[in-house]
């Protein structure tokens, strides 16, 4: 072994300690912005959101609500922001691969979880109807009524023609 470290820099890659990427804590609360400085312009937003609004409008007229969506997520033990094995309308039972836990929740447990997310008094009657099993079910989807899978590319293709 040598007694000198002379020339170490020619054999090693050296990185200085960089500044931390986060700003110093300001002590202020986050502020809600009405408009972001980045993102698509109004025309592009309309192009993408228009077809989605039409689909949602149709579902709303059949009885879809935010409470129903949340209730379904909790009841079926599905993670909303996770990539699923298949669309949620193809969910079958507790053995479904989109389900995160095999354990079933009671209606009271589902109710408490939905209430913890929403906490709006005007939604409480609908939450109670779900807990009592009295909520209206949406029209069942089956092979001939399944939504057509649409890719972003095909929406762009048809919109430009």
Task: Tell me what you see in this structure.
This protein is elongated. The longest helix is centred in the N-terminal third of the chain and has 20 residues. It is built from five helices and no strands. The N and C termini lie far apart (74 Å). By secondary structure, the chain is mainly alpha-helical. The C terminus is likely disordered. 37% of the residues lie in helices and 0% in strands. The chain has a domain of 74 residues.
Write the layout of secondary structure elements.
Blueprint: H1 42-61, H2 66-75, H3 107-118, H4 124-131, H5 152-160
Helix pairs in contact: 2-3, 3-4
Globally, the shape reads elongated
Beta fraction? under 5%
Poorly predicted regions are 150-161
Structural classification: mainly alpha
Count helical runs. 5
Mean pLDDT value: 78
Straight-line N-to-C gap? 74 Å
Report Rg: 25 Å
User: Helix coverage percent of residues?
Assistant: 25-40%
The largest sheet, given as strand count, sense and whether it forms a barrel, is: none
Order of helices and strands: HHHHH
The number of E-state strands comes to 0
Write a concise keyword list for the protein shown above.
161 residues, 5 helices, 37% helix, elongated
Outline of this structure?
The chain has a domain at 65-138. The chain has five helices and no strands.
């Amino acid at each position: 072994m040598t007694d000198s470290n002379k020339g170490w820099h020619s054999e090693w890659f050296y990185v200085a300690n960089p500044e931390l990427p986060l700003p110093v804590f300001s002590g202020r609360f986050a502020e809600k912005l009405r408009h972001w400085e980045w993102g698509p312009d109004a025309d592009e937003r309309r192009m993408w959101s228009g077809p989605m609004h039409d689909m949602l409008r149709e579902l709303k007229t059949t009885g879809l609500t935010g409470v129903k969506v949340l209730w379904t997520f909790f009841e079926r033990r599905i993670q909303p922001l996770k990539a699923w094995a298949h669309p949620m309308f193809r969910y079958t039972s507790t053995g479904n691969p989109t389900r995160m836990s095999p354990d079933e929740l009671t209606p009271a447990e589902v109710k408490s979880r939905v209430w913890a997310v929403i906490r709006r008094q005007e939604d409480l009657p609908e939450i109670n109807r779900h807990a009592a099993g009295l909520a209206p079910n949406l029209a069942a989807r089956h092979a001939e009524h399944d939504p057509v899978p649409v890719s972003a590319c095909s929406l762009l293709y048809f919109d430009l023609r």
